[in-house]
Prior knowledge:
Helix content: 25-40%
Strand content: 15-25%
Order of helices and strands: HHEEEH
Shape: globular
Radius of gyration: 15 Å
Number of strands: 3
Low-confidence stretches: 1-8
Strand order of the largest sheet: 1-2-3
Amino acid sequence: MGMSLEPTTGLTAWSAEQLAGLLERLTKIQRSISLRAPLHELFDAITAGAAELLGDPIVSLYLVDPSDPDSLAPASIQGGPPDAAWEQARLTVGRGVCGQAVEEDRLVVVEQYR
């Protein structure tokens, strides 16, 4: 697993405080990886960090289901309605933003996503 941040992503417009927060989150995630934290804790740290840094109300991390490669299963979801059955929130490769990103093997950004 890796992460790359390019200057074209808008990081140059971030304040020193925002960049420090980003580095703190990345360090925490790297420490979890090094200490071999359970995967669900690692995934939760990634989505919690993304939600905090991006200010989005719902952040999710989906993985391709090894038993069904055309299906994406939620690994971690932060935010949203507390009574939502997120563990049932499966997606299809090729449909929606997550499915499109997996199918095309690229980052997909959508403003004002419903």
